[in-house]
Amino acid sequence: MNWELKTFNTDDAVAWDAFIKEASDGSIHQCTAWREFQKTIPGREQVLGFYAVDKSGKWLAATWCVKMSTGFLSTHWYYSARGPVIKTEAKTIRADFLKQISEHLKKEKGLFWRLDPYWQNSDWVAIKSEAQTLQIENATKNFQPTDSLLLDLRPEADVISAQMHRQGRKALRLADNAGVQVEILSASEVTPEHFNDWQTLNKDTTKRDGFFGHDKTYYENFIKTLSPATYLCLAQHEGKTVAAAILTVHHEKAIYYFGASSSDPDSRDLRAPYALQWAMILKAKSLGAKTYDFTGITPEDQPDHPYKGITQFKTRFGGYRSTYANGREVVLNPTWYKLYRLIKKIKS
Question: Edge-to-edge strands of the sheet including 230-237?
Fold first, then answer.
C-alpha cells in the first residue's frame, strides 16, 4: 500500500476529527480537543501529531504523541493514549507507521514511546515480526486498563435495566426511595460551586481508596477543553452532593471517568452511585452512544486485583468484558532507556 506520513498542523483539524470519529478504534483520547487538554497540563505542552494518507489523500492512521517528563535529568518520553488509530483495512501499514514516527521522535531526543491502542497481543506479535528493527518492550506502567466493562446501549432502556444483576436493580430502587436526585451538567452549566463539590468528594475517595488523584484545575480543564463531549454528573440528597463522576460521549462511545463518593456511612447507605450511573447511561443513550465504557475491571486471572471492589459495583449493571493488550514501549534511545528501566525497578 502506497502511503505517506504527515505531521499535524491546525489546518488538518477538521479532517483529523472526521477520521477519528469514523475509525472503529477511534476515541476521545485521539480527537483534537484531547491534544488541547493535554497542553493545559504542566509539562505536556508539546503534543506532536502524525497521520498517514494514501496516494489519493485518504486517511489511514493517526496518533498524538504527548511529551512526558521521566522525572530525572530533564529527559522525556512520548505517550499515545489509546493510539495509534489505524483503519482495519490499513493494518498492513502498522509496522512502517510506527517505524517512521519513531524516527521523528528520536530526533526530538525521546527515550521511548509508549502506546496503548485498542489492540490484542496478537497484533503486537505481528508488528514485532514485521518491524524487526524496532525494539518493543512491555510498558513499565499501564495508564489505560487492560480489561474494561462495556454496556450495549442499542436496546431499549427497559431491556438494559432487565439484564442488570438483581442487586443492581435493588440498589437503584433504594436510591430512588431515598430521594437521590442526579444532575448531569454540560461545561457551560458547571459553576465553581459544582467543582468544589466534585473536588471534596474526589479527595475523600482518593484518600479512602488509596489511589492517585489530580488537582481541581485538571478536572476543570478536562470538562472545559473537551466540551461539548463532557459532562459533570452529580448525585444529591437533601441538597448535599454525595456522589459524582465525569461522563464523555464522543460519537458512539461513552466513557465513565473519575467516580467519587462520600465516605459518610449514612450517605453510602443511599446507594447514590447506582442512581448516578444509571442516569449517565440514559444520558449517553439519549446522545446516540452505542456503547458505555465503565473502564477498568479486574482481569480474569487476577481475582485479588485492586479493582476487585469497583468491579463488583460495575458488573451489577450487566455488560460484557473487553480485553486489550498491555501497553508497549518503543525504545528510542537504548542506553538511556535501560537506565530508566533500572531506576524504575529500584524505586518500585
Answer: 181-186, 230-237, 240-250, 253-261, 291-296, 147-152, 320-323
